[in-house]
Amino acid sequence: MIDRRKYIKDTYLRGINKYKHYFFEDKKNKCYISIKKILELDEPFFTRKGLCLINQNYYIVEIVPLHENYCIRVFVNDKKEIILYYFDITLQNGFDSLNDSLYYDDLYLDVVKQDENIDVLDEDELIEALENGKINKNEYELAITKKNELIDSLINDNNKYIKIDFFKYL
Question: CA 37 to CA 148: how far, in whole Å?
């Protein structure tokens, strides 16, 4: 699974020339929080639907729970308004002291929450990973189970991680 390991300090930085990055442990919530403030970039990043996620003075906040099988990326605009939440379903999350970085082992499946809308992405990639032997049946089933649990927590508004007040650190 190490080939699907993503290091937080290296993610979502294509075309970004200057940024400020810091992270810290939130012991109360048993997670790490990483904050990247975008200072200079080649050009803004837009979704296929035309939503600007990355621009000058925007933030990328990443919440990495230590005992969950997902991590959260929150895109925040220059007015400090949440644009959307992006969840990566993961095999595990942690801190790699050799690389001095938070990481997650990606299980291909993603969930996006924008306002009240919740979408599941990359189910085809998950199936393909299983068929190609990149993940096993247990990892596939874990991804499906955790996706369903995550969506339930979002629908029922009881996901403690999206309630964390990270704005005080921006």
Answer: 31
Instruction: Give the chain's end-to-end CA distance (angstroms, integer).
Output: 33
Collapse the DSSP code of 60 into the 3-class scheme (helix H, G, I; strand E, B; otherwise coil) and give the result. strand
Of 42, 79, 34, 40, which is closest to residue 60 (Cα–Cα)?
34
d(CA 81, CA 51): 13
| CB contact at 8 A, 80 and 167 | yes
Fold of the domain built from segment(s) 2-169: FomD barrel-like fold (2.40.380)
Q: Please write the tens of the pLDDT for every residue from 37-95.
A: 999 999 999 999 899 999 999 999 999 999 999 999 999 999 999 999 999 999 999 99
Query: How many helices (H) and strands (E) would you count in the chain?
Result: 2, 10
- At 111-137, the pLDDT tens digits run 999 999 999 999 999 999 999 999 999
DSSP H helical ranges for 19-133 = 123-131
Q: Is 25 exposed, middle or buried (0-12, 13-18, 19+ CB in 10 A)?
A: middle
